[in-house]
Amino acid sequence: MATKSKKSKSGSKSKSRSRSTESNWEDFRPDWANESIERISSELEKWSDDLQTRSSQFRKESQKRIEKSLTQLQKELRKIPAIRRAEEIREDIEARVEQSTREGVDRIYETLKVARLDEVKKLEKKIKRLNKKLKDLEDGWAA
Hints:
Blueprint: H1 2-28, H2 31-79, H3 81-112, H4 117-142
């Protein structure tokens, strides 16, 4: 048992020694090693930048291909008779809803006895024309 404790103590000492050696190694590393490490780091950065550029290009191209495929798929689906019929039904329903809405709004205006905006504008134009004619007649009588 005594040998085990000595081994574990010496093992922990060697770990602390290796840590201190690593930090000391950087201080005593030759210039050619520093330059090599810098070159390697520089190359790794270049590769990383290149990978990011390629990745973004791939994403853009993939997005374009997906959109093109989706458009083509939609065109093909519209050729299917059931899909065409469904679109016709949708358009018919939209038209009916719009017409029902207009009729409902018209009923509300009639019930409240309120003129619609377009009707008010038409009446304003007629009033302006009549006022102009009246003014012309008054000017003719005054002369």
